[in-house]
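User: Could you walk me through two proteins back to back? I'd like the raw sequence and the structure tokens for each, with a short line separating them so I can tell where one ends and the next begins.

Assistant: Of course. Protein one, sequence then structure:
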Amino acid sequence: MLYDALRFLINIVFGLLVYAVLLRFLMQWLRAPFRNPLGQAVSALTDWAVKPVRRVVPGYRGYDWASLLLAWLLQALWLAALMTMTGGAVSGTLAGLVAVLAVVELVKATLWIIIIAVFLQALLSWVAPDGPLAGVLNALTFRVLTPVRRVVPPLGGALDLSPLIVIVLAQLVLMLPVAWLE
């Protein structure tokens, strides 16, 4: 029972941090505005960890390498913590496996962020198209929706199927290549 509670807390803390730092990286890379509730929450959750790493790992060519490195390190620590809880010691070989698995988990997390952002953007486009999250969601989804919109234009000029297609494709990537890498 104590084991389950500890595992739950580790998953919550590390999950929140990994997704927040990864979202920060994506928002900066895709030039999403930070002057909104989501951007401010991401900054508040991650500033304490990202700013010290930035002194050592500066940004380069529009990428916030400090955030990406921190997301990878947090993901690796998360996996190592879960492995040691199950009784495994993190040796040299296992550390290499943890490092590779952390990359796979970050790819999964990125795909989930895309799926959620596309879903929220599609939902909010009907309910509150000019809401405070519209700019962030547009920036996060523009690069994945635009190529699909070129191939599949809106039906009847009004029904845009591109969000559905992107979500299905992202789910397929999660099911096939990413699951195979695990």
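----
Protein two, same layout:
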Amino acid sequence: ALSINPFSTTVLHNRATLYTEVDNIDKAIADYNLILLRDSLDPEARYCRGLLYIEKKDYLSAEQDFEHMLAVNEKSVRGRMGYATLEKMRGNYVDSERIYNYLLSELPKESALYLGRAELFYKMKKNGRAMSDINKIFNEGEPDAYTYVLRGKIKLAQFEKKAAAKDFQTALEMGYNPKRINELMELCK
């Protein structure tokens, strides 16, 4: 498809997503860079690239992407979500929690926000609060494999090894990384 239309943003988005799924972060970032050269306001490309920068621990570049999103639209939910994730990874838990709380006050049904805040609470070792957010996801809709993994980690931290193993097994059946699941299952023994 790229040989027919090498500048198709749709094709570049799709390819960047595939690169991300197979952990080829540099190639995914390169595709997002191409998209942003064509359209510097593309919020999806900027958000995804920002998250990839976080994964590479290039926090300054991630911050620049999220700042740009908020400069274009100060109410950008994705820009704020990106900042919440960035602050969480930087260890600025109070700032991250403040952002998640604000976003959840505006969008109380958004499961991605509950998941992000649950990850934050887990990092803060506030497992009861993390489990409360995870339960909202399970009660409101269809949890994905990663949500099962996070719930399993929280259960493991609460010394519920059998329940954790069950969640890890479910995540594996849903297609989660087998190597990572095996590592987590070892902790359940």
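The chain has two domains: 1-108, 131-189.

Let me know if you want the two compared in more detail.
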